[in-house]
Design brief:
The structure is a single chain. It is globular and about 85 Å long. 62% of the residues lie in helices and 4% in strands. The longest helix has 32 residues, at 95-126. A four-stranded parallel beta sheet has the order 3-4-5-6, sandwiched between helices. A two-stranded antiparallel sheet has the order 1-2. It is mostly helical and 565 residues long. The chain has two domains: 29-374, no CATH class; 436-564, Transcription Regulator spoIIAA.
Length: 565
């Protein structure tokens, strides 16, 4: 792979900060790169097929709306975005909010809201608010994703068990109550097919991760249902035939009278889109060694969401699972994302009638796996081990997302983020009397009195290391290839840390360990020390590498270097 493709800073960009990565990458494009992008694009296009339809159905719209979104928005996000391998389209984050908007304001209300969200995202991108999304604490983000995952599961129980539920409920409690009241209508054939599909997806994910499980399950599940003439609901029986051909361009009836009413849901859609797309771009960076342009990414997301309603599509954002599939399949540039969109377009033109035979239970099983993956459940025990404030913020965000309204949850999460930040910063102010003992203890952490050995490098964090400040670690990532074997983080002047800060330190420690380097912590104050203990940070770098002072860390570095020599 070309060095220019892996490292966007290898040569200066003559086109300016807001040049799409697609144009930058094409400056050094080759035939071999195109072949890799073509294979990756076709692969991720096939993976996106069932997901796009499933997200649309779960949102309360016909399946073709999801395909239109993946084609139009997916192409624009790749063509105009700031990430080399990001894949855009409909995602689970929008399912509940889209469902609620349609139920209350109809499709015209959704189109208006989506366009408004697109304008907000464009403004955020042009205003260089790409880094502002990082000011949302990790407990809030995890609370959102946990809650959305639970809500998605609740919307899929009807199709998973083939229940005869006539009335659609917009709230979580109503959906669960309807499932209990109608559980006697369980369709054995549909349930058996769904369970087998779910089991196959789990087995493929755990033992054959390189095989696209959704495609395998979709093909064999649909074939089994048709071959044995199973009495199950399909896309055709529920929605009719999927129209063959290009999505028609039409200007929706934008409801100006709903502008202020829809402003709050539009902000929710924009914030969710920004959060998920930038999280996906960060994942892509770690997998591919790239560094995305967050402002350009938000701009592209905005344009895509302004264009999607013009073709009958839904809100769109970066999709983490599809982006990871794209990278694992060998994608090098945004061309792969554009091929993914064109692959779906070809399928829509040639194979639309075949999609009508897909059982809804198969799509429900696929969405259950999606919900589990997006929930980031492994992060919950870590948050519960941290400070009571982190637990309360996570619990409130989670509860509001599930039992109240996603818009309310977003607003409350942002408010709690601001209050939490103020509280953390004010707690860092201290007043201490300088005594001979204080001076003696301070010498243990002095940069001047503790000389580093050759083969070690020292970084220090000064001040509170909270959400919004964690991007400072990028300095270390940028110098990763030239770092010596030992890296010391002097944290004596780090006055406070939160769940987001700990998460980023954990990622840094793992990245350094993967590169064959050792991270040492030199000195901790009471609050950071307690938080790292609660997070069991020693499991990542080892108890001996968490040192009480810089002097101890330097001694530890000398010992490790002697062991290596």
């Amino acid at each position: 792979m070309h060095e220019e493709l892996r490292n966007p800073t290898a040569h200066p960009n003559p086109f300016g900060e807001f040049t799409p990565r697609s144009i930058q990458c094409l400056r050094h494009y080759s035939k071999n790169t195109f072949v890799s992008d073509l294979i990756a694009g076709i692969t991720v296009g096939l993976v996106a097929l069932p997901l796009a339809m499933a997200f649309a159905i779960a949102s309360g719209v016909p399946p073709q709306a999801g395909l239109y979104t993946a084609i139009v928005a997916g192409f624009l996000i790749s063509a105009l975005g700031g990430s080399r391998t990001q894949i855009g389209g409909p995602t689970g984050a929008f399912v509940i909010v889209v469902y609620g908007i349609i139920a209350q304001y109809g499709m015209d209300g959704l189109y208006t809201c989506t366009c408004m969200a697109g304008v907000i995202l464009v403004i955020m991108g042009l205003g260089k608010f790409g880094t502002a999304v990082k000011f949302i604490p990790r407990p809030v983000v995890i609370g959102f994703t946990n809650g959305i995952a639970i809500l998605i599961v609740s919307t899929q129980l009807k199709d998973f068990f083939g229940l005869a539920i006539d009335k659609t409920h917009g709230d979580f409690i109503g959906r669960i109550a309807a499932v209990f009241h109608t559980f006697g209508t369980l369709n054995v054939a549909a349930t058996s097919l769904s369970v087998l599909a779910l089991a196959a997806l789990i087995l493929i994910r755990n033992y054959l991760p390189r095989i696209p499980g959704p495609i395998v399950v979709l093909i064999f599940g649909t074939a089994a249902a048709a071959l044995f003439d199973l009495p199950v609901q399909t896309i055709h029986s529920q929605f009719g035939d999927i129209p063959r051909g290009l999505p028609e361009f039409h200007i929706p009836t934008f409801r100006s009278d709903l502008f202020f009413t829809l402003l709050s849901p539009a902000i929710t859609v924009a914030m969710l889109g920004a959060i998920e797309s930038l999280l996906s771009a960060v994942v892509a960076d770690r997998m591919s060694g790239d560094k995305h342009n967050s402002n350009m990414e938000l701009f592209a997301q905005g344009v895509a969401n302004m264009a999607s309603p013009l073709f009958g599509g839904l809100p769109a954002t970066g999709a983490i699972a599809r982006t990871a599939t794209n990278i694992r399949s060998g994608a090098s540039t945004p061309v792969a994302g554009m091929v993914h969109a064109l692959t779906l377009l070809v399928i829509l033109l040639l194979g639309a009638p075949l999609a009508g035979h897909i059982p809804l239970g198969i799509l429900a099983a696929i969405l259950l796996i999606v919900a589990y993956n997006m929930g980031e459940w492994s992060q919950v025990p870590e948050i519960l081990r941290l400070s009571p404030a982190s637990v309360v913020v996570w619990a409130i965000t989670f509860a509001l997302t599930v039992f109240a309204d996603l818009t309310v949850a977003v607003e409350a999460g942002l408010a709690m983020a601001a209050l939490l930040y103020i509280r953390k910063v004010t707690n860092t102010t201290t007043l201490e009397k300088v005594t001979p003992q204080y001076i003696e203890e301070d010498a243990e952490h002095s940069l001047h009195l503790n000389t580093l050995p050759e083969g070690a490098v020292l970084y220090r964090i000064h001040g509170p290391f909270l959400f919004g400040a964690t991007e400072k670690l990028q300095v270390i990532y940028d110098e990763m290839d030239s770092l010596p074997p030992i890296i010391i983080l002097r944290l004596w002047n780090m006055t406070a840390i939160d769940a987001t800060g700990i998460h980023e330190l954990q990622n840094l420690a793992k990245a350094l360990r993967k590169s064959g380097r050792t991270l040492l912590i030199g000195g901790l104050r009471d609050q950071p020390k307690k938080m790292l203990e609660n997070a069991e940070f020693h499991r990542i770098i080892g108890s001996d590498n968490i040192c009480t002072s810089l002097r101890t860390a330097v001694s530890r570095a000398k010992f490790l270097l002697e062991q290596k020599s």
